[in-house]
Amino acid sequence: MRKIITSLFLSGLVLSVAPITSASAKEIPPKKYSSCAALRKDYPNGVAVDWYSRGTSKAAVKNEVYNLNYRKLDKKATGLMCAPKTK
């Protein structure tokens, strides 16, 4: 009897948590930006292709966004685009 109650409790717990995690994990689809000013409205610190290219900057690591926009916005081909200028 105890095993049945425990298994029912655990299955109920898993089923109650599953919809919450899947709903919060939704991603906004990447889009093309016409300029760095437009990209910085969504990503104020710029976008990096990966963590290595990000370095010590605060840029968001968004591979899909980078791949859609790097030809136009990453002038130096560093893997980091539209990062704000440091003083």
Gyration radius, in Å:
21 Å
Helix count? 4
Mean pLDDT: 81
Total beta strands: 3
Order of strands across the biggest sheet? 2-1-3
Class of secondary structure makeup: mainly alpha
Tell me the distance between the termini: 68 Å
Largest sheet: 3 strands, mixed
Element-level helix/strand string? HHEHEHE
Residue windows where pLDDT falls under 50 for at least 5 positions: 17-25
% residues in beta strands: 5-15%
State the helical fraction. 40-55%
What is the approximate shape? elongated
Please, could you describe this protein's structure?
The protein has 87 residues and is mainly alpha-helical. The chain has a domain at 27-81. 52% of the residues lie in helices and 7% in strands. It has four helices and three strands, in the order ααβαβαβ. It has helices at 2-24, 36-42, 51-54, 63-73; strands at residues 47-48, 60-61, 80-81. The chain has a three-stranded mixed sheet with strand order 2-1-3. The longest helix is centred in the N-terminal third of the chain and has 23 residues, at 2-24. The chain is elongated, with a radius of gyration of 21 Å. The relative contact order is 0.16. Mean pLDDT is 81; it is low at 17-25.
Helix and strand topology:
Layout: H1 2-24, H2 36-42, E1 47-48, H3 51-54, E2 60-61, H4 63-73, E3 80-81
Parallel strand pairs: 1-2
Antiparallel strand pairs: 1-3
